[in-house]
Design brief:
The chain is α/β, with parallel strands linked by helices. 35% of the residues lie in helices and 22% in strands. It is globular.
Length: 281
C-alpha cells in the first residue's frame, strides 16, 4: 500500500466528534488509518471574520487508491459530514486535505500534490510533524520537521521574485503597504481594488519584513519566497519554471506561486501565508 498524509480540520459543531467520525469513515479495505496526531486548536486563517477556532489534526494513511480516487474519497466524507462549499475559507464542519502522496508531485487543475499551502500553515505542519516528521517534501527537499523549524527560525522575512510587469506592480504595492504607505484608492479596475491597508496590519502583527528577490547565495535568511507572475503569459510561466529548476531545491525555505493576473486572490493568499506561518502553535 502507498503512504499518504492528510490534514483534518473543523470549526463548526462538535469539532472533535467530527474529526473522529471522519477518520472512522475513511477506514476501508483500500484505505487504512495508520495513526493520527493529537487534536490541536488553532485560530482561523483567512476567510470571513468572526469564525470559531479550529480543531486540527493530521493522519498517516496507507492506501491502494490512486491520488485522484483518494481525493474523491476525502470529498465524499466531507459531503457526508455536512460540508458545503459556499464561500472560500468560511466556517466548515469538516475539512480534509490530501497533503502528501508518497513522493508524488502532481499539478493539475483538479489536484495539486504536495498541497500548495502545506508549508505555510503552522496548524497543518505541527500535527503533521507528530505523525511523519521525517517525510521529505518532494519539491522543497525539506522534511516536515525542517519545515516546522523554519517557522521559528530567525526573523519573518519574505522575498518576492517577480517575473513580469504585472508582478512587479503588485509586488510594489505589497512593499508600499508593508512600509505603511497610504492604501491605493484610485484603482479603475475592480479586480485591482483590494484594500491595501489589510497587508500592513498582518505584516505588523506578525513582524514580517518584505524584500525583493534574493538569490540563495545572498546571505539573507528568508522564511518564505513568493514567486509572482502573470501565469496567463507563457514567457512568465517559462521563466518561473526555469527559476524552480535552477534554484528551487537550494532555497532552504518554502516558496509559493501566486498569480499577478488575479491580484485580489493573490493578495489574500499572500496574507494568509504570512498569517499561517507567523501564528503561534
Amino acid at each position: 500500500m502507498i503512504a499518504c498524509l492528510i490534514g483534518l480540520g473543523s470549526n463548526q459543531g462538535n469539532r472533535e466528534q467530527r474529526l473522529r467520525e471522519a477518520l472512522r469513515r475513511l477506514a476501508a479495505p483500500d484505505v487504512s488509518v495508520v495513526r493520527h496526531s493529537a487534536f490541536l486548536t488553532s485560530a482561523p486563517v483567512g476567510g470571513p471574520s468572526g469564525q470559531h477556532d479550529f480543531l486540527n489534526a493530521a493522519a498517516l494513511l496507507a492506501t491502494t487508491l490512486e491520488p485522484r480516487a483518494l481525493l474523491e474519497r476525502l470529498l465524499g466524507v466531507e459531503r457526508a459530514l455536512g460540508r458545503l462549499r459556499t464561500q472560500r475559507w468560511a466556517e466548515r464542519p469538516i475539512d480534509l486535505d490530501l497533503l502528501l502522496y508518497a513522493d508524488a508531485a502532481i499539478r493539475t487543475a483538479e489536484l495539486e500534490i504536495p498541497h500548495p499551502r502545506l508549508a505555510t500553515r503552522r496548524f497543518v505542519l505541527a500535527p503533521a510533524a507528530e505523525v511523519a516528521p521525517d517525510w521529505i517534501h518532494p519539491i522543497f527537499g525539506l522534511s516536515i520537521e525542517q519545515l516546522v523549524r523554519n517557522l521559528d527560525a530567525g526573523p519573518n522575512v519574505a522575498a518576492i521574485e517577480s517575473f513580469d510587469e504585472a508582478a512587479s506592480d503588485l509586488s510594489r504595492r505589497w512593499l508600499e503597504a508593508a512600509a505603511g504607505w497610504a492604501p491605493r484608492s484610485d484603482a479603475a479596475d475592480p479586480n485591482d481594488a483590494h484594500p491595501m491597508g489589510s497587508p500592513s496590519g498582518v505584516m505588523r502583527r506578525f513582524a514580517w519584513t518584505l524584500i525583493e528577490g534574493a538569490p540563495p547565495e545572498c546571505g539573507v535568511a528568508r522564511k518564505l519566497i513568493v514567486l509572482l507572475g502573470d501565469w496567463t503569459r507563457v514567457a512568465s510561466r517559462t521563466a518561473c519554471d526555469a527559476w524552480v529548476a535552477a534554484v528551487g531545491t537550494r532555497t532552504a525555505c518554502p516558496w509559493l506561486r501566486l498569480d499577478a493576473s488575479r491580484p485580489n486572490e493573490s493578495t489574500d493568499e499572500f496574507l494568509a501565508a504570512l498569517e499561517g506561518m507567523g501564528g503561534t502553535a
